Amino acid sequence: MKHVLYQIGPGTFFAFFIRLMSSLDVALHDLLKLKKNLVRKSALDGSFLKPQLASLSEDIPTGARWIFETKFDGYRILAIKTRRGIRLMSRNGKDWTHRFENVVRSLEALDAVSFVVDGEMVVADKTGTTSFSALQKMLSEESKTGFVYYSFDLTYLNGKDLRPLPLVARKLLLETLLKMSAGAVPALKYSAHHIGDGKKIFSLACRNHTEGILAKDSAAPYAGRRSKTWLKIKCVRQDELVIGGYTDPAGSRQHFGALLVGYFNDDGRFCYAGKVGTGFDQKLLASLHKKLQALEVEASPFENPLSPIEQRGAHFVKPRLVAQLSYTEWTPDGRLRHPVFLGMREDKAARTVQKPKKISLKKKNKERTHGTRSLVR
């Protein structure tokens, strides 16, 4: 069993596929068509650095094809092993290997020549819930331990491209890889999935104070882009916004009063979305103020004009820095209600930040109730 993953080939994966997919609504002739192209040899090129992203959904999908995972509140990280060693890459291509030394040591213990693992880097609070604020705090303190890497996908293994495989087959291989090194990888955890009533799973996730759930099509290949085969359903409203300015401090506060934030619309124009003035501690106020001063500009970067009250004491900056915020809702005029600052998102490019758009699955689910949907497109 120790070296089973070194012997992977189409026949082995086909056996996995038949066993795993037998309970799903998939026709056998589709499996036979897929047999020849399940796995192929491949060089580890830059295409493996493009993570699959989930679409925000207002509905929880139904049907046997869908599985559900916990949505963790952390940094998306691709873990890559080559002959040169381990690299940890953020979703926008930054090398963060040096920031998570304990995770690197655990990844080095995995029994594989090469791999690309997809997962989330997290820190848990005292209740065991993953906390983005706790993660930010540990990073600001330059801690090298205490991080946990929850892995949920495996796209490359020992010279083989696994992306064409159905999700459940990739997850089986990932779980096997982790179990083979059990005890030697304390910083690595497998993100188990759940099968069943998505609404009940979502309700339980919200009661446990998680960020939400991910719904994934168990038969889908891995797509290095945003896709509707991965859906995110949130318990709390959190999003990334770009900082376009800040206001002068008032009262006893130092450095700045509030951040002026916005997003880019489909035309690439930067739109104002409101002020956020809570969620900061003194250390963060000082460090963030220094970064903002280095980006100051004379004119407002926002396409839509601020009101005279909003402009009072305002300083504008180049829209380069991304912040994570929680809030209660978006107002009809495109402003955030009751926003709270949670932390900075160094892993996301400002130009990619847009106002969240939810998709509806009602029509899609209705279609899937009639007969078998083909895996072969």
Please outline what is shown here.
With 377 residues, this protein is an alpha+beta fold. 22% of the residues lie in helices and 28% in strands.
Labels describing this entry:
disordered C terminus, 9 helices, 20 strands, seven-stranded mixed sheet
Architecture overview:
It is a single chain. This protein has 377 residues and is of the alpha+beta class. Helices cover 22% and strands 28% of the residues. It is globular, with a radius of gyration of 22 Å.
Order of helices and strands: HHEEEEEHEHEEHEHEEEEEHEHEEEEEH
Radius of gyration: 22 Å
Q: Number of helical segments? A: 9
Using DSSP, what is the number of strands? 20
What average pLDDT do the residues reach? 84
Percentage of residues in helical conformation: 10-25%
Spatial separation of the terminal alpha carbons: 35 Å
Would you identify the regions where 5 or more consecutive residues have pLDDT less than 50?
1-11, 18-36, 364-377
> In what range is the share of β-strand residues?
25-35%
Largest sheet: 7 strands, mixed
Structural class: alpha+beta
Global geometry: globular
List the helices and strands and how they pair.
Layout: H1 10-21, H2 28-34, E1 40-41, E2 53-56, E3 66-71, E4 75-82, E5 85-90, H3 101-108, E6 115-122, H4 132-140, E7 148-157, E8 160-161, H5 167-180, E9 188-190, H6 198-207, E10 212-217, E11 226-234, E12 238-247, E13 259-264, E14 270-276, H7 282-293, E15 296-297, H8 308-311, E16 314-317, E17 322-326, E18 329-330, E19 336-337, E20 340-344, H9 362-368
Parallel strand pairs: 2-11, 7-9
Antiparallel strand pairs: 1-8, 3-10, 4-5, 4-6, 6-7, 7-8, 10-11, 12-13, 12-16, 12-17, 13-14, 15-16, 17-20, 18-19
